UniProtKB/TrEMBL annotation:
PROSITE patterns: PROKAR_LIPOPROTEIN (PS51257). Its main location: other. It is found in: Cell envelope. This is Sugar ABC transporter substrate-binding protein.
Length: 392
């Protein structure tokens, strides 16, 4: 079975597991998972629109809202009849689908033809091959997210030397300098997403309790930032909440690995654990399954990224209390716009970021549309249950 097929099979199994075990809904008008907790709510209000992350090389962030092209510049780009290659770390989830949608929409507006999209299946050697294959097709632009900043650096260097304008998502290859080797890097505010998830955890627990942390066990810039944002906020701002267990996960079956890690935490700490944090939505699906299997519906879960399964759980007022969301569609639009900056030899900021969006049951339906620029899927709408604000 190919790596891609194994991933697809795993995803299908996880979806089935979640639908049968981890998304059992609460009843209509049951207590909402987020009670009133003024310190956390005030902190979240203060964060609105703010970007907390620094770039991969410590750059100050520039808001994606500041990127613009005049009508004359758009016409200049269209006249170039440029081509673009999109080299992904993997595809098949909600985040990458929204990224690709934003990229393709904006490229179409700019008259730029997308000549190929590749999926490395999180395998650096496969991504090196993908880059080499795309270099041979001589695109003007390459948009990519490196699976491994070291292992892929040489291939990206060959792309830059071939005169291809590079724009990166989230991560950059080792040894690359903005403005010299690539146009810009675009990312969600991943540190801020971790901070948001910490405040939502504090709100769910009303500032008191013991929690476990399930992080990505690979040195990857954006997931490191999420972990730091979450753990530093808990430790610095919520002395009543203690992180009593941490475990890292890696490999192709991240939901399965996270489920195993959560099972181990729940078994070890029994009733002494009150909350669990997952580094993004796919591992969190495994956390949800573990909590359901242990019949620990009282355990509060927060995470990052609004994927479909997590959204259904949230709609049912069951499982995930809240999360910090990226804006992948808008990130894709920003990346395509920066590619146009490169074609025009227009000065571009080295690091562009989009602010985190807190998502919970109360704003779920509006947040989905803001994030994906699409109607809310029927599966979420049909799962949505009203809930009653709990008393403090």
């Amino acid at each position: 079975m190919s790596h891609r097929a194994r991933l697809a099979a795993t995803a299908s199994l996880v979806t089935l597991t979640i639908s049968l075990t981890a998304c059992a809904p609460a009843t209509e008008n049951s207590a909402c998972l987020l009670p009133e907790h003024a310190p956390a709510q005030e902190a979240l209000a203060d964060l609105e629109g703010e970007v907390l992350s620094k770039g991969p090389q410590g750059e100050d962030p520039v808001s994606a809202d500041t990127l613009e092209l005049t009508d004359d510049e758009v016409n200049q780009v269209k006249a170039k009849k440029a081509t673009a290659a999109i080299v992904m770390h993997y595809t098949g989830d909600d985040w990458t689908a929204a990224q690709l949608n934003g990229l393709k929409t904006r490229f179409s507006e700019l008259g730029i033809e997308v000549i190929g999209v590749t999926d490395a299946g999180q395998d650096p050697s496969k991504q090196v091959s993908d880059i080499e294959n795309m270099i041979a097709r001589k695109p003007d632009i390459m948009i990519s997210i490196p699976t491994d900043a070291v292992a892929t650096a040489g291939a990206y260097r060959r792309a830059a030397e071939a005169g291809i304008d590079l724009v990166f998502m989230d991560n950059i290859p080792v040894g690359f300098e903005a403005g010299e080797d690539y146009i810009s890097a675009v990312s969600a505010d991943n540190y801020g997403n971790g901070v948001v998830a910490a405040h939502l955890m504090a709100q769910a627990l009303q500032g008191e309790g013991n929690i476990g942390v399930i992080k990505y066990g690979v040195d990857f810039f954006v997931t490191n930032q999420r972990y730091e944002g979450f753990t530093e906020t808990i430790r610095n701002e919520y002395p009543g909440i203690k992180i009593i267990d941490e475990r890292g996960i890696s490999g192709s079956d991240l939901a399965g690995e996270a489920q195993n890690a959560a099972n181990a935490m729940l078994l070890r700490h029994q009733d002494d654990i009150d909350g669990l944090w997952g580094v993004w939505d796919v591992p969190t699906e495994g956390i949800m399954a573990a909590v359901r299997t242990a019949e620990r519906g009282d355990v509060k879960i927060t995470t990052e990224d609004l994927g479909l399964n997590v959204a259904i759980s949230m709609a049912q007022n069951s499982g995930v209390a809240g999360l910090g969301a990226q804006r992948p569609y808008d990130q894709g639009v920003a990346e395509a716009t920066l590619a146009a900056y490169g074609l025009l030899e227009k000065d571009a900021p080295p690091y562009v970021a989009l602010a985190a969006l807190p998502v919970h049951h109360g704003n779920l339906l509006d947040a989905w549309q803001d994030i994906y620029h699409q109607e809310v899927p029927e599966a979420i709408q049909e799962s949505f249950l009203e809930c009653t604000p709990p008393t403090s």
